[in-house]
């Protein structure tokens, strides 16, 4: 589960960038009894047009969640008719009974995730033998992602410079069991509605105990 808090200041200085610019602010870890624990990262942002954020109801191109793969005849590729190179079933690469072109397809269909469905992207890195390597959530056994959407910051169609802080809370029951005392760091990037990607910022390296509140 993912939650957001956004604080923003409208009409800061005029020399803000068209491409969003972000910087690291803070990271913390909160454990709760009988509830999901939270890994919370805060980033500061600047943007000239203020076209940041997506409404949860925005699922039409280019913000649609999935691409449906088809064969040479233009037919959807189903699990029962998958080619040899298709992956085994998992919830990332296959969709069950999806709605395609406003028609429900009662089958399991091969898909690709559309990265533009999200507007905040988080990569995890774990330190082993002095070297950081990516911890790939989308690979087995997890088949998930902590990429997500933060909501629209400015309403209306009046472009305005904006700056502020996004607090991004990633909730899971598995933080402690997966990472224990491992040393981690995160890379974070955001994207505006024109599909301009910001710079990538990294957290300092940390263990859960070091950032626990």
Concise summary:
This protein is mainly β and 213 residues long. It is 2% helix and 38% strand. The two termini are 19 Å apart.
Fold and architecture overview:
This protein has one helix spanning 175-179; strands at 2-10, 21-30, 37-47, 66-68, 94-96, 99-100, 103-104, 108-113, 120-128, 131-135, 162-172, 184-190, 201-202. The protein has a 4-stranded antiparallel sheet with strand order 1-11-3-2, with no helix packed on it. Strands 10-9-12-13 form a 4-stranded antiparallel sheet, with no helix packed on it. The chain has a 3-stranded antiparallel sheet with strand order 4-8-5, with no helix packed on it. A hairpin with a 2-residue loop joins strand 6 and strand 7 (103-104). The mean pLDDT is 94. The chain is mainly β and 213 residues long.
**Uncertain runs with pLDDT below 50, 5 residues or more?**
none
Terminal Cα separation, in Å?
A: 19 Å
Tally the beta strands.
Answer: 13
**Cα gyration radius (Å):** 19 Å
Biggest beta sheet summary:
4 strands, antiparallel
Helix segment tally = 1
Trace the largest sheet across and list its strands: 1-11-3-2
Briefly note the structural class of the backbone. mainly beta
Features:
single chain; 213 residues; mainly beta; 4-stranded antiparallel beta sheet; 1 helix; globular
Helices and strands, with pairings:
Blueprint: E1 2-10, E2 21-30, E3 37-47, E4 66-68, E5 94-96, E6 99-100, E7 103-104, E8 108-113, E9 120-128, E10 131-135, E11 162-172, H1 175-179, E12 184-190, E13 201-202
Antiparallel strand pairs: 1-11, 2-3, 3-11, 4-8, 5-8, 6-7, 9-10, 9-12, 12-13
């Amino acid at each position: 589960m993912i939650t957001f808090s956004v604080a923003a200041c409208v009409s800061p200085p005029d020399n803000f960038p068209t491409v969003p610019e972000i910087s690291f602010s803070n990271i913390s870890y909160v454990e709760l009894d009988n509830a999901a624990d939270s890994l919370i990262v805060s980033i500061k942002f600047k943007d000239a047009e203020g076209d940041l954020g997506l409404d949860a109801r925005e699922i039409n191109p280019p913000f649609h969640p999935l691409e449906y793969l088809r064969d040479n005849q233009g037919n959807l590729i189903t699990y029962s008719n998958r080619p040899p190179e298709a992956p085994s079933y998992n919830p990332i690469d296959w969709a069950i009974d999806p709605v395609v072109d406003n028609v429900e397809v009662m089958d399991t269909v091969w898909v690709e995730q559309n990265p533009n469905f999200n507007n905040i992207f988080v990569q995890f890195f774990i330190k082993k033998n002095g070297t950081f390597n990516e911890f790939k959530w989308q690979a087995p056994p997890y088949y998930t992602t902590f990429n997500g959407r933060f909501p629209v910051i400015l309403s209306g169609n009046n472009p305005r410079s904006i700056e502020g802080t996004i607090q991004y809370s990633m909730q899971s029951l598995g933080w402690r069991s997966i990472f224990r005392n491992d040393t981690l760091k995160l890379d974070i990037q955001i994207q505006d509605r024109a599909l301009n990607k910001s710079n990538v910022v990294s957290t300092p390296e940390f263990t859960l105990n070091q950032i626990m509140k």
